[in-house]
Amino acid sequence: MADYYNYLIVVLLMVMGLYIVMAQGNLVKKLIGLNIFQTSVFIFYISTAKVSGGTAPIVIDGAELYSNPLPQVLILTAIVVGIATMSLALALVLRIKRAYGSVEEDVILEQDKSC
Amino acid sequence: MVRARDLFATVMLSGIYGLLSASFFILMDAADVAFTEAAVGAGIFPLLMLTVLTSVGRYEAERRRVRYLPLFVMVVLAGALFAAVLQMPPFGAVDAPSHGHVAQRYIQDSPAEIGIPNMVTSVLASYRGFDTLGEVVVIFTAAVGVVVILLGGRPKTPQQSTQALMAEHKVLRVVGKMLIPLILLFGLYVQFHGEYGPGGGFQAGVIFAVGIILYAMLFGLSNAQRVVPLGVLRWLVALGVLIYGSVGLANLVVGGEYLNYSMLASDPVTGQHIGIILIELGVGITVASAMVLIFFAFTRATRSRDELEE
Amino acid sequence: MLSHLAVLQVVVPLLAAPTCLILERARAAWLFACLACLLSLGISIALFMQVEASGPISYALGGWEAPWGIEYRIDALSSFVLLLINLVAAAVIIGANSSLTAELPEPRHSPFYVLFLLCFAGLQGIVATGDAFNVFVFLEISSLATYALVALGRDRRALFAAYQYLIVGTIGATFYLIGIGFLYSLTGTLNMADMAQLLPGLEEQRLVAAAFAFVVIGIAMKLALFPLHGWLPDAYSQAPSMATAFLAASATKVALYLFIRMYFEVLGQDAVNALFPVGKLFLLLGAIAVILASLAAIRQNNVKRVFALSSVGQIGYLVIGVGLGNALGLQAALLHLFNHGLIKAALFIAVAAVVCRVGGSRLEDFRGLGRAMPWTMGGMVIGALSLIGVPLTAGFVSKWYLVLAAMESGLWPLVALVLIGSFIALFYVWRIVEVAYFQPRDGAAVSEAPLMLLLPLWAMALANLYFGIDTSLTVGGSEQAVNFLMGSRP
């Protein structure tokens, strides 16, 4: 079981993040949940890259074993994509607040229904 | 974190979460990723969040309901995932399939093929250089999107003088004045050091942006915009992408495939060097200007709201 | 340069976007975007002919051969889908200037073109690439551009629609990323063709199943497959009209393309169905989507929303074709993918023309338009006939193949379902036609839509007629794609 400790933590973070996205009504909090969810995937990828006894994939004298550079590259890209998505989402939240006066999901839906 | 109604506390906690993830990545030998996650998860993300909170309010509404359907879905999902990940290769296994096939070549041959010690940079900038072009375009898209959503298209320089967030703190201003040049210098160092150690265009761009954002916080948005006007930023955001893309097109002209830098010089390894320096420059320019542009747009949007309220 | 067409297909719109931003002047940006889209259309036609003549094209980006580098692979399937996206994009961008002038303030025009080109480039990137992670990057380019495009809509509801789409889309993309992570840790490769070779015979079947589930659920969110379709009607009815025309005709189609690639080529239909009867599940979900969405479309008062819900229903047909699992069913799905793209482009451009002149797309806005805007409504009626599936239109051809495929599998209830679906479509289309042709218009006189909108509208409408009569291109193209997919893994 100890071999899978990392992955089990990842799964817990993943479902926690998703639960916040689905169950919370506050638009800002949903985004925090989304952030937790995305970061859990980063942790997953980076965990698969680790090689026991290896070092960071930068050539140094005397190192025999390196950790896998490929998942690290993928996650570098994914982190950037993540923050890009977040900034766009936060911009939307700001405009929603200005247009509806609220960032609570039910209040917004209520207002849309009435007009 | 789920329960707290104080959004300020949640944002702070998620910043700590970002920092913890970054330290975890260090333990996992992923120095470049840790660097980036620290800058993004504990830097840019909480900063943007806090800017938004000044406008949407710190506390969320009272809520009583517990949602059972999502809870149920999550429990099922967690169960299925537990069952699945137990079939993953054990953590840290040397002989896991993912370390053997494609990665093997990056580790064994990239120092000779690309000529730089940081394998992450080799893969990022050359073997999978097209992904990185896409990544820069994603940042570009976000910047265009944020500006058009918040400012309604063409950014204009503001008439009103906006007060700085921390203008009244004399000590901070003095310390900041000393720090900002150092931060910018460090950004340049990271930009050009990415081939040897952790770092590269993205991290450098973020650091550079932080320097300018700090300036804006200490000396006011209008002062900062006098140093880097929005029009120039908009131009720079596009320029970075164009630099990256043109390197690819230049390769077509000299007879290689798109983003095949080997043809850029008579010696393939030198060619790779030139190509990587150029595209990292493109990444740095777009990332730095996009981050600053996004921050300016957020600050402007929250400010103009305050003025409306008054 | 001819050997680089595969990559230029994506790079041209990708680099045209920042150039458009620098141009800044709305008109200049529009002309430049038109140029880029027409160039891209030319490339896609050349690629289509090249693939038809000499088989799949593989292009090693950066000069690194697959699986070490990223491979662009244009085969019968991708060139077919690329052709559709390019046709629609060219039609939409030509009409965009006239439509935007009526819908958006001027400073927002040039960002619209930038975002449009980014979305276009992202979708093409998904189709052209042979690398599973590269798909994710381009998926996010197109998605971020789409969220921003939706948020440009005039109503404040556009903002909330964009936010909800963003949440669903990001979860979908992240699910896809998790699935790819599982597949990578099993095979050690990201190249799709390489993965397809390494996957059979693996012992870790639970993990393969989980990978498949994540990839499929992720794509299904983008595809708006029932019951994950909630974001689509809001997003499509709130976005600027021309953005809707492009998205409705291309974005869900690309999601279906990706799904077909993963299901038939990477994971293998038989291997997946041995784990779980996915095909039957698709038949069920598709059937529910057809019935529920079509019924919901009847009750709508906004024409944009009617057609948006109809899209959800049409996605049901597509998924049914895939779920049947035989060659004829897959061909029907591909045919409908192409034809439905043309149908929705024609219908939404017609709606854009109405919004341009009347200012809204509610049902009562259409009163008397049959006389006031005869060309616009004429084009819309052709599109609507094709949507219903009247003979001699493109929509008939694809539904005919779907019926044939259902009969081949002996699934008679599905045959009935297709007929019922068409009947309901007739019903909701008739409501619009009735208002437009048999109710008098009161208030100010309305003039015909500008020529720059009528041109692309009629181009799409005539395409619907043309591909209903001369089916050699669509049937031939889809048949080649099916042979390629089914042949690649018998």
UniProtKB/TrEMBL annotation, chain A:
Record protein name field: Multicomponent Na+:H+ antiporter subunit C
Keywords for the protein's UniProt record, in alphabetical order: Cell membrane, Membrane, Transmembrane, Transmembrane helix
Family stated for the protein in its record: Belongs to the CPA3 antiporters (TC 2.A.63) subunit C family.
InterPro entries membership: CPA3_antiporter_subunitC (IPR050601), NUOK/Mnh_C1-like (IPR039428)
Keyword Membrane carried by entry: yes
NCBIfam families (UniProt xref): PRK07375.1-6, PRK07375.2-3
Topology in the lipid bilayer: Multi-pass membrane protein
Keyword Manganese: no
Organism this protein belongs to: Litorivivens lipolytica
Residue intervals passing through the bilayer: 6-28, 40-60, 72-94
GO cellular component, one term: plasma membrane
Any Pfam family hit: Oxidored_q2
Localization in the cell: Cell membrane
From TrEMBL, chain B:
Entry's transmembrane regions: 7-28, 34-56, 68-88, 132-151, 171-190, 202-221, 233-254, 274-298
MrpA C-terminal/MbhD domain: residues covered: 1-56
Superkingdom as given in the UniProt entry: Bacteria
Domain MrpA C-terminal/MbhE: 73-156
UniProt KW keywords: Cell membrane, Membrane, Transmembrane, Transmembrane helix
Protein's membrane topology: Multi-pass membrane protein
Pfam families, A to Z: MbhD (PF13244), MbhE (PF20501), MnhB (PF04039)
GO CC, alphabetical: plasma membrane
The keyword Transmembrane appears for this protein: yes
Main location: membrane
Subcellular localization(s) per the UniProt record: Cell membrane
InterPro entries (UniProt xref): CPA3_antiporter_subunitB (IPR050622), MnhB (IPR007182), MrpA_C/MbhD (IPR025383), MrpA_C/MbhE (IPR046806)
The Na+/H+ antiporter MnhB subunit-related protein domain, residue ranges: 171-292
Family designation: Belongs to the CPA3 antiporters (TC 2.A.63) subunit B family.
PANTHER family (alphabetical): NA(+)/H(+) ANTIPORTER SUBUNIT B, NA(+)_H(+) ANTIPORTER SUBUNIT B
This protein's name: Multicomponent Na+:H+ antiporter subunit B
Record organism: Litorivivens lipolytica
TrEMBL record, chain C:
Primary localization class, coarse: membrane
Membrane topology qualifier: Multi-pass membrane protein
One protein family per Pfam: Proton_antipo_M
Localisation per UniProt entry: Cell membrane; Membrane
Domain NADH:quinone oxidoreductase/Mrp antiporter transmembrane: 131-424
Transmembrane segments: 6-23, 30-51, 77-100, 112-129, 135-153, 165-187, 207-228, 240-260, 280-299, 306-329, 341-360, 372-398, 410-430, 451-469
InterPro entries reported for this sequence: CPA3_Na-H_Antiporter_D (IPR050586), ND/Mrp_TM (IPR001750)
UniProt KW keywords: Cell membrane, Membrane, Transmembrane, Transmembrane helix
Statement: the UniProt record of this protein carries the keyword Ion transport: no
Disulfide bond recorded as keyword: no
One GO cellular component term: plasma membrane
Similarity comment text for this entry: Belongs to the CPA3 antiporters (TC 2.A.63) subunit D family.
Annotated protein name in UniProt: Multicomponent Na+:H+ antiporter subunit D
